[in-house]
């Protein structure tokens, strides 16, 4: 006999944790949260430095790969995604960025009522507990802790000096009135520990809210559809297939790769594509898995023996080991690093209305997502293209629910993306060639022989990959949008009682990191659901 509750939330990532936590605040509303990974509440997740253990490996990580990318010389890309409560917020670099006001106003202009910047700002503020900023743009009473860096790294001042030498603006708050400029990032941390979406919305209530049941190691295999509406979810737990049924709604929050995958496994998607895998079509919805957007990213890296950086060397390892006591006592020091400690938003052309590239200045040399190690210490500087024109897709590799999805970001397929990245390379290089940063560089790992624009194009195709911000595969859109999967209230079109609450609903990629916006989507979804419950 299966369990029946009001809401079944599939996926304990940023959107799923936020919506499950908020809905379960009402003691009369019962919620089951299904998460394929574990609880993600141990020292590896809580210690910021340990992201270097998780991102390159299968530790709390789905460890996906892409299909070969023609725009990247046929290379297979890497797509780490968080597996465990908190989802990718449990393994990411914790950078707290909302995106630009323009992005949300653009969503509204595309026909998504209620998603303008003025509409979403209250939800960003509601979620946020910011130690540094308050007022019109920030909150200080939400469950998501946001703090300044606690590494006490003197290189921040060197980075700011380099920004001044390159004649870039300095920005202390990237989530306020203006975004353009460079500076240290704020992070989703509290007292030097990672503050994932699970720590904010779920962990405190496991076992204390009788109406919230969290099932970990529970991978959904199919949404149960009866009479044109979602009535529950089948999932694997302890090698058994079980079911949980939903009186009100199934809320899908499995992320930009696995939400469309689960829809397709359940017979919701493009009918012809489903039939090729022998899946019975429940509802023809051709936009499922289309519209994949991600930030293509390039990394400059330099060897340096300056005492600010980490790496694979006797001195680098000794430096980290020597600070364990400080971290335990004070929650400060190098173990609180998110690696991408500084950065910001720049325009490759002065006539642009909004910044088109983002920088992440890292405290270690990074090669192939940390999967290739170089002896020595040093630093890196990423730049990514914020609003690429290329569009990819997510499909099924088979009808097996435990097989990975077929991921095709289609990076640099639009020629304009390559040319904007050439401009982004030159803009970032201006910063790297300032006296302040040149003084730190002993060896240029990747770009020492890059001279011409053709050289830049070649090195981009050789080295570009994701910076971990996939969105858009269950696109929110108006009724006349043939690619739209959900409406502006995040309800799946043509299937009753089924809603999607994660980054897959974003119609376009926002100009920045996607974790805070996904939490905002979870907050806003909970409000919309409560409104509908009151109306009914």
Protein described:
One of its GO terms (cellular component) is membrane. Belongs to the GMC oxidoreductase family. GO terms for molecular function: choline dehydrogenase activity; flavin adenine dinucleotide binding. FAD binds at residues 92-95. With 536 residues, the protein is α+β, with helices and mostly antiparallel strands. Among the domains are: 3-36 and 198-291 and 471-505 and 517-535, FAD/NAD(P)-binding domain, CATH 3.50.50.60; 150-184 and 296-385 and 413-463, Cholesterol Oxidase, domain 2 (2-Layer Sandwich). The chain is built from 15 helices and 26 strands. Strands 7, 17, 18, 19, 20, 21, 24 and 25 form an eight-stranded antiparallel beta sheet that branches. Strands 1, 2, 11, 12, 13, 14 and 26 form a seven-stranded mixed beta sheet that branches. A hairpin with a 2-residue loop joins strand 13 and strand 14 (240-252). The radius of gyration is 22 Å and the shape is globular.
**Relative helix content:** 25-40%
Q: Write down the Rg.
A: 22 Å
Number of strands: 26
If classified by CATH, what would the architecture of the domain at 3-36 and 198-291 and 471-505 and 517-535 be? 3-Layer(bba) Sandwich
Q: What composes the largest sheet?
A: 8 strands, antiparallel
Distance between the first and last residues' Cα? 28 Å
User: Quick one: overall form?
Assistant: globular
Instruction: Identify the CATH homologous superfamily of the domain at 3-36 and 198-291 and 471-505 and 517-535.
Output: FAD/NAD(P)-binding domain
Protein name: Choline dehydrogenase-like flavoprotein
Cofactor: FAD
Family: Belongs to the GMC oxidoreductase family.
GO molecular function: choline dehydrogenase activity; flavin adenine dinucleotide binding
